[in-house]
Amino acid sequence: MPHDEFDVVVVGAGAAGLAAARRLGANGLSHIVLEARDRPGGRAWTVRLANGEAADLGCGWLHSAETNPLAGVAESQALTVDKSPPPWGRAAAQVGPHRERAGAFMEAIGRFRERVETRPADAPDVACSALLAPDEPLNPLIDAVSTYYSGAELEKVSAVDLQAYEDSGVNWRVREGLGAAVAGLARGAAIRYSCPVRAIDRRGARLSIETDGGTLTAAAAIVTLPSDVIAASPDLFRPALPEKTEAASRLPLGLADKLYMELLAPGDFPVDSRAFGDMGRRATGAYQFRPLGRPLVEGYFGGELAQSLERGGLAGAFDFALGELVGLFGGDFRRAVRPLAFHGWRSDPFAMGAYSYARPGFAGSRLTLAAAVDDRLFFAGEACSPLSYSTAHGAYLTGRAAAEAAMRALRRGAR
Ligand SMILES: Cc1cc2nc3c(=O)[nH]c(=O)nc-3n(C[C@H](O)[C@H](O)[C@H](O)COP(=O)(O)OP(=O)(O)OC[C@H]3O[C@@H](n4cnc5c(N)ncnc54)[C@H](O)[C@@H]3O)c2cc1C
To answer: Where would a tag sit more exposed on the chain, N or C end, judged by fewer CB atoms within 10 A?
Structure first.
């Protein structure tokens, strides 16, 4: 087969694309992954900080860990899965002046989740903000936490979609980084980096995939682009696929950004402890001290707050965090930390955000986005997962499923 003709082209080398490529490779199909960045992993990205520590700027937690396939992926690469529990599930992990309110907050958010989970299956969709108890004083913080896990404020998020999300409540980490584990899937894979796909033309007998480096042809393609990238690229498909562009725009990427700071006197904080910047505001950060015992503070910012912090980059995010931390721990805290790293996922042209949520009324768009076109154009990526959207393992599973579907279609075509 000439160099640029393949059975399957995979667009994007994140968790979904790499999972698809492995499946195709294991079954002997000729394939290539086309990736716009110069690295694999996409929104899974472990970096080495200036103080030598590994840190995940994208996904860090193996959610629903006991059934999460990425735990096995990490272990198969001799990486270490750490099973110590996350601070958000332990009131005792809270530090700072608000720590005595941590128990009350966990109860309040538990009642909110209960209202989400016990909605009748046939109840019309509403924005999650409609499920807040009107007299709950901790509502702003429940909203802040929504911006961490949905990437968006409650009034933007579909209750039906949130109810569908499956979470066993078990969360593990990978000591060397979850991003490193996902990127490890790229070892030995056929990937062209720095190769953004500009168009996928399905008017001929074979698909034509146009890139900056030339045109490839394939019998089938698996598209794993983030939903906002699809929504912003109506010319990606020829002929156009307005139902895909529309579904993607109904599953926008929320925003979550992380800031890493070096903690210069780590002994002052317990391992894996946490504080909210301000328990009375929704535009506030969550700060995890000494994650995995490391001399770090990981700041987590969501939604509109994260959006505004991206304008100031590392210095601006550090300024904001320091303001909140000094408010909690006093002026001496200025000398306790220094900035190390920040990544703005909204400003990242190949992500355009952090993870998808569904707008109220549009939870069903996940299936529309995931549906195959003409039995030769397949879709994967976290936004295509109805039950594990927004996660790395959800992306991985959709990638594997898309590869299986593409292989079945090719077998049908061969017959
Ligand atoms: C701050 C943050 C924290 C998170 N925390 C967690 C967590 O704790 N646990 C968890 O499970 N998940 C978490 N997530 C979500 C998780 O990272 C994503 O859901 C998952 O990595 C998405 O994988 P994907 O393959 O669907 O998409 P991506 O990883 O975005 O892969 C798509 C790929 O397509 C590439 N691409 C874009 N445009 C083009 C183009 N034109 N041509 C070719 N390639 C292109 C991109 O560069 C990218 O590599 C987090 C994400 C962020 C940002």
So the answer is: C
